[in-house]
Amino acid sequence: MKKGILAVLIVSVLLAGGLVVPAVLSGCDPGGDVVFVQTGVTEVGSVLTEGKRSGGGICNADGSLMLEGDSFSISAEEYGWPMTLTACRGLMGEDPIASLQIPEAAAEGERWFVFLVKDGAGYQMRCSTTWPLEE
Question: CB atoms < 10 A from the CB of 103, how many?
């Protein structure tokens, strides 16, 4: 695989027992309802996604960390609203950095962009309907 091509891996999380089971996703829906953008403020290995219908997660299939500017989209049709995203340092959802719950879909024709940002001594996730994040 060439560097710079984002291959994604869906990591299904079985909440009972915390067992993590990986499964490869063949592609990323460019028109998803939510787009996570790696801003590069800290290392991110995976992002867990939990919605009303299901949960899972995404990481690079080659085991590398997400690079600044990497992004992936998530379809709410699969997970449902509200949707919670948790950025983690580990590739299998270990070492959570920050979480954000998005209660509902963006307005018609828009989607949510989710960013991890530095917040004092820690980090937080923010969402906006614009990319890049407007401060």
Answer: 8
Residue ranges making up the domain that contains 74: 8-128
85-108 tens-digit pLDDT: 999 999 999 999 999 999 999 999
Structural domain includes residue 3:
no
Going by C-alpha positions, the residue among 96, 107, 106, 5 that lies closest to residue 49 is 96
- Give the tens place of pLDDT for each residue, 21-41: 333 333 344 568 999 999 999
Number of domain units in the chain:
1
Which run of H or of E encompasses 92? none
In 3-state terms, what secondary structure has residue 101?
A: strand
Answer whether residue 55 is part of any domain: yes
CATH number at residue 103: 2.60.40.2890
Instruction: Answer yes or no: are the C-beta atoms of 48 and 93 closer than 8 Å.
Output: yes
Query: What's the whole-model pTM score?
Result: 0.77
Instruction: Write the CA distances from 83 to 57, 65, 69, 122, integer angstroms.
Output: 12, 23, 22, 22
